[in-house]
Amino acid sequence: MTELTTTTADGMHITVRMPDNHEWVRESLERACAAEARRQIDTTPAPDPAYAVPRAAGLLDLHPETLRDYMRLPDYHPRRLHYMPGESSRGDRILLSQIHDWQRRNRTDAEPVAAPGARVKRGRPSRFQQ
Fold this sequence. Notes:
By secondary structure, this protein is α+β, with helices and mostly antiparallel strands. It has helices at residues 23-43, 53-60, 64-72, 96-105, and strands at residues 2-7, 13-18, 50-52, 93-95.
């Protein structure tokens, strides 16, 4: 049995019991789950991936040293590419949002860089994913 409970505006509680195999119950639950999933996806902040310098240079179609030159400019310079410093220059990371901001500030003709798709996993497929 499935119980559906609601409370009216005047505070009255209503509970309806229906068999689990009733088509209306199944469709209502599917719609409610889909609506909740959409709400959670819409309210969740989008990830901001960070890229190493060679990967970011590849996305912008620049040589890595040219990209590092943009990173070394003074903070006030409009062409400076902001980044998250690492313990060494190999650990420096550039956020996708910073790449988009840099492209907007420099009015590049290129299309804004899109986040690359997920990498293909190698090895045996997981037995937990269906």
